[in-house]
């Protein structure tokens, strides 16, 4: 039929991430340990989500990287979020890649769907939930 076109998704390339996006930043020379905050973060490990809030330069990344190093038993993943991660597709691709540093099988199907579709679809989210449940 003239005018009827079949629209198939076109594959896009997976994003390129700097290696440092998945590495906790090293402590600075002027680093000051915050044992009370570390205890609070450790106590929050049993919660499904912990949000660390503070003004720019207040030391959020420093205390989180200290806690990450102190508690990492090979099952923690680090993802440094930046402006580019305001794009939901890029954020979820980075999230999957971060978790894959701990479990290389996590999110493989979801990552393929996101790359193929160029967006985060309900199928991709369902695949992530299935991997998280497993």
SS strand fraction? under 5%
Rg result: 19 Å
By secondary-structure content and strand pairing, the structural class works out as mainly alpha
Instruction: Please estimate the helix content.
Output: 40-55%
Poorly predicted runs of 5 or more residues:
none
Task: Tally the helices.
Answer: 5
Query: What is the residue-averaged pLDDT?
Result: 87
Major β-sheet profile:
none
Gross geometry: elongated
Q: Count all strands and give the number.
A: 0
Give the SSE string.
HHHHH
The separation of the N and C termini measures 46 Å
Can I get a quick summary?
The protein is mainly alpha-helical and 134 residues long. It has helices spanning 35-43, 60-71, 88-100, 108-117, 122-133.
Features:
134 residues; mainly alpha; 5 helices; 42% helix; elongated
Give your account of this protein's structure.
This protein is mostly helical and 134 residues long. 42% of the residues lie in helices and 0% in strands. Helix 1 crosses helix 2. It is elongated.
Q: What's the helix and strand layout?
A:
Layout: H1 35-43, H2 60-71, H3 88-100, H4 108-117, H5 122-133
């Amino acid at each position: 039929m003239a005018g009827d076109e079949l629209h198939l998704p076109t594959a896009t390339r997976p994003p390129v991430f700097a290696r440092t996006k998945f590495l906790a930043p090293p402590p600075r020379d002027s680093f000051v340990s915050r044992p009370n905050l570390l205890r609070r973060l450790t106590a929050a490990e049993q919660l499904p989500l912990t949000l660390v809030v503070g003004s720019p330069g207040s030391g959020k990344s420093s205390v989180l990287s200290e806690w990450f190093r102190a508690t990492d038993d090979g099952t923690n993943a680090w993802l440094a979020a930046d402006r580019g991660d305001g794009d939901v597709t890029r954020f979820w691709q980075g999230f999957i890649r971060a978790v894959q540093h701990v479990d290389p099988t996590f999110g493989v199907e979801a990552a393929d769907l996101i790359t193929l579709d160029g967006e985060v679809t309900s199928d991709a989210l369902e695949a992530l939930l299935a991997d998280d449940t497993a």
